[in-house]
Design brief:
The protein contains 22 helices and 7 strands. By secondary structure, it is an alpha/beta fold. The protein has 2 domains: 2-273, no CATH class; 289-430, no CATH class. The chain binds calcium ion (2 copies).
């Protein structure tokens, strides 16, 4: 079923070769009947949204992975504190990469709300971080079927907030948590926003602003999200869902607030910053007098989910250690600005491809230019030095796509971004 849907959706997107098409990929088997929702969006907006499925692989993999992750969970529960956390982390990493969005959601969700015998899994913002951050040890997924049942009052209670808030000051995720929990639609939206290159947010916003008056109201938002997530129920219910921390945060409890392009972009920036801050904090910057992490830690993080074999990883890291031992380290600003560029994903690859006319790769100066173009950020010469030391394997002072690819490609996949980006297709070119 999902395979056929996936092919159809891809063919459908491919046919529109002249217009820009915004495609939200979705490989969610439980909500897979998206065909009905496409029509009105297509005619109504001019920028079209389609729920495509890139998940044939995901579907076959999840049958193997989910049982393994749950077995790891059970052995964790059975043995108290003495369980193999490393094994669990590995399994969760695989689930993020190969599971469907729906599986990931159900696996990392902690809560469940029951009404009229209908059960709905709900996520805290902590769960969300775990669902998108490879190697996260903040908490672990509880597995499908093991949920804490909550009432409506408990969803927005101070107690739930205290349990679930993230250790970040002034965090947009915490602001959302204060307003409630995350529904499946909320999760799909947050994942989509994280995986859409910054330069396409304007186009994505237009897709949400169905009436084209420059604002996105709650109703428009839900209309588009229901199509992306393949929601088949009553959308009016979604608009007024009191459980949704995201809806409450974005549109206010009375749903009178609106989104505009600036707020939309700021929201993405703040969301990415929250995730990156927690990832940076893993390496214990509080122990350093400048609150930096070491260059080796930065590179360890960069290689964490790359497709490079571990022996080779060790060799690459050794090179970095040799060059940078005892130097100033990497500040959060540097870390953040570099990763904003990686969040630009496919854009970055394209820019490297176009600049690289002789197929030699790009120089340090060119890399800095590309970063400015992709993410509107200045990345420091120091960080570019570190990255070149790590990845310029043949030492020709150029970073080729071949040298960079294993890191970049895997980096997005390890977060499940390939499942959810608001893809922009121009002809046959998928961005
Ligand atoms: Ca509007
Ligand atoms: Ca090179």
């Amino acid at each position: 079923m999902i395979r056929i849907l996936g092919r159809n959706a891809a063919a459908w997107a491919g046919k529109r070769s002249t217009a820009a098409v915004v495609t939200a990929t979705n490989n969610n088997q439980y909500h897979s009947n998206n065909n009905n929702q496409r029509g009105p969006l297509l005619t109504g907006v001019g920028v079209a949204l389609a729920a495509g499925a890139a998940g044939a692989l995901a579907y076959s993999m999840q049958d193997e992975i989910l049982p393994k992750v749950e077995a790891a969970q059970k052995s964790k529960a059975a043995s108290g504190t003495d369980y193999d956390e490393k094994e669990l982390i590995e399994q969760e990493n695989r689930l993020r990469q190969f599971g469907t969005m729906d599986n990931i959601y159900r696996f990392f969700s902690t809560y469940q709300f029951i009404q009229d015998r209908k059960k709905e899994a709900l996520m805290s913002v902590k769960d969300f971080y775990n669902a998108v951050a490879p190697g996260s040890i903040l908490t672990h997924g509880t597995g499908q079927g093991t949920y804490v049942i909550v009432t409506l009052d408990e969803i927005t209670s101070g107690k739930t907030y205290e349990t679930e808030k993230l250790p970040i000051q002034d965090s947009v995720l915490n602001k959302i948590q204060l307003c409630g929990l995350l529904t499946y639609i909320d999760f799909v939206f947050l994942l989509n926003i994280l995986s859409t290159p910054r330069r396409y947010l304007d186009i994505a916003f237009h897709a949400f602003d169905v009436s084209a008056d420059g604002n996105c109201e709650a109703k428009e938002f839900v209309h588009v999200m229901a199509a992306i997530a393949g929601y088949k129920g009553d959308t009016e219910k979604l608009v007024n869902d009191p459980k949704s921390g995201l809806m409450n945060y974005l549109f206010g409890k009375d749903r009178t607030k609106v989104l505009n392009p600036d707020r939309f972009k700021r929201f993405q920036r703040e969301l990415i910053q929250d995730i990156l801050y927690l990832e940076f904090m893993r390496y214990g910057p509080e122990k350093d007098k400048y609150h930096n992490i070491s260059e080796v830690d930065f590179c360890t993080h960069l290689l964490y989910n790359s497709s490079i074999p571990s022996k080779k990883k060790a060799k690459l890291l050794k090179r970095v250690d040799k060059v940078f031992s005892g130097t100033k380290g990497v500040s959060f600003e540097e870390f953040k600005n570099f990763y904003y560029v990686l969040f630009g994903g496919a854009d970055l690859e394209r820019a490297m491809f176009f600049l690289d006319s002789e197929k030699k790769g790009v120089t340090r100066a060119e890399f800095i230019d590309i970063a400015r173009w992709v993410a509107n950020r200045d990345i420091s010469e120091h960080i570019v030095d570190v990255v070149f030391t790590l990845l310029d394997e043949d030492g020709d002072e150029h970073l080729s796509i071949k040298e960079f690819q294993p890191v970049l490609f895997q980096w997005r996949h390890s977060r499940g971004f390939q499942k959810a980006s608001l893809l922009v297709s121009l002809g046959h070119l998928k961005i």
